[in-house]
Amino acid sequence: MAYAKKQTSVQVDDNAILYALTADTSGGAKTAIALPGPGWFKVTIQITAKTGASPVLDVLISDSDASGGTYVPRGAFPQITGTFGPNGDGTGIYEFGVKFDQAWAKVTGTIGGSSTPGFTWACYLSPLKI
Question: What's the pTM value of the predicted model, to 2 decimals?
Fold first, then answer.
């Protein structure tokens, strides 16, 4: 289950940075990070700004047994649009849980829209105690 919060800042002390806060207009797979082990993690997506006409962002979380290996999808967030979210403008904090089975994780962002669509966004992971 995914949910969203009105705030736009994240306390990163306890989070692994899967993708640092960056203005992104190209999307694509981001650099993989090593996980501390298999298990459940909270995925936090932070969006602070958007550009373009009708921008959309699709976020996919995946894992692999090797950093350059084949990645298996583990979770996706519902499409984020320029009018979606707790602030009504696409910005905010979005969170959901995902279970990783492998040693490496990465996030892929797919950006669409017109007039140079983009999002300033980040993705963080933190272990869940279940």
Answer: 0.86
Report the topology of domain 3-127.
Jelly Rolls (2.60.120)
Q: Which value, in Å, is the radius of gyration of the alpha carbons in the chain?
A: 14
Domain boundaries in the chain?
3-127
Query: pLDDT truncated to tens, each residue of the chain (130 aa)?
Result: 455 454 555 555 556 899 999 999 999 999 999 998 899 999 999 999 999 999 999 999 999 999 999 999 999 988 998 887 788 888 899 999 999 999 999 999 999 999 999 999 999 999 988 6
